[in-house]
Every structure is written in C-alpha cells, then in structure tokens.
Fold:
Amino acid sequence: MRIPFRKMHGAGNDFVILDARQAELPPITPQGARWLADRNFGVGAEQIIRLEPTEEADVFMRILNPDGSEAGACGNATRCVARIIFDETGRNHAVVQTISGLLPVRVTADGLIEADMGPARLGWAEVPLAQAMDTLHLPLAGDPAACSMGNPHATFFVPDLGAVDVAARGPVLERDPLFPDRANIGFAQILGPEEIRLVMWERGAGMTMACGSGACATLVNAHRRGLTGRRARVHLPGGTLTITWREDGHVLMEGPAALSFLGELDGARLVAA
Structure:
C-alpha cells in the first residue's frame, strides 16, 4: 500500500504529514514512527503528524514523537497544518484541533501564520509536576521555571547559551522525577526585553531546530521572571518566532510554514513490529 505524504517545516522544525481525512490509514506503531523519523532509512522528521476528520474544527492534528509517544501540542506543526487548510480552502483563518484543545490560526499581514496556542497553564498540577511547588522556581540546579502549553515545559535561563551542553543535560532533565510525564527542556539566553535566544531539548524527540510550544513557554516564563515584556522575538537554530502573551492569558505564536516536498511511502512500514 503506497501512502502519500507531505514533508513540511516551520523554522526548520520538520514533519512528515499523513492525511487520514478521506482515506483510511493504518495505525502507526512505535517502530513505524522511528522508521519514518529516521533520516537515513526513513523520510526524516522531528515529529509525525496525522490529519484526521473532526466535527469540532477544520482538522484534527495528531502528533507523534519519533519514539512513538503522543504529544499534546506542537506550534510549528500547527502552522504547517494551517498552511494546508489555507491552500485547500482559500481562507485566511481556520481552527486546528489537538488532544490539548482547539487552536485558532490565521494568516498575518506579513504572510506568516499566527496560531493562538491557548492559555499558558501555570499551576504545578497543570504542568504537571510530581508535587505541589512554585512553578516559577523549581528545586533543580539552574533554578528553572515551568509551565504547560498543552505539554510540559521547563525553562533554564542561562548567561551564555554557547556554554551549555544541551545534548548532555537535556535527556537527563527530561526524565527527572520532578516531571511525571517527562518534560520539554529549554535553555534560554535573554538578549534584551524583546529578544531571546533559545535551544530546546524536546520530550521524545531530542534537540530540534525549533519548538513552537517551547518558544511560547520561554516567553511566558521570561515575563513571569521580569526578564522581558509580553512580546518578544525568540531566535531558535532554525529561525525566529514572534511570541505574544496576551493579558487574557492566551499565547500567540507567529512564524513561517513551508512545504519541502511530496512523496509516497510503504504503508507496511508504518505497522511494522
């Protein structure tokens, strides 16, 4: 069975997107997800996106990490899926549904895509953390702050991002007992009140070129610490996202979304044990 796919990216954060809205697709096993994400033997992606029909929005977006685990949110993927909907319908606004909720999206005056990622969740049980504590100062070396953007995030503010071994620290922190559902780990250097440099270690995916929900969480935590205003440009290895934390608690993310190529894959590999 040959299955068509799109390869897309948002600021270098890349995805294999499968469309199950019209045609039945087989379920993706963890082994199938690892194959799809593999850059040598598969297609190559930081996450796998499955589009599904829904009556509550324009599309339901299911997000799988390269290890086969399911993610609750992905801002860059949301913009890519929005681009598909806009190209299909000719509209400049839509709603994308995820397991974490409904995300309104629109085309901005600059031709970029803005996604309303919903409210930042700041309570310890909402992140979630293993026990009650102040999410602005976690009891870990480096004094990170935490919040949820539909998935758990911890942000470490550092004076020099170049001095941080993200590949070594990320996987250890992701699985710290403080995070019962594991966590996305961000290392952020504040360049100014409207400028942040960020590198992310993503739960289940590792180091990525960009992380939309991570950029949102970083701006929220930076503002809570008094380090930035409510709007800032967040510079990631793959590009720049503009994040706004509105007074009503919702976080807006603006950035690019691009099609890399179209292709077909062997459906039997998706269900391989």
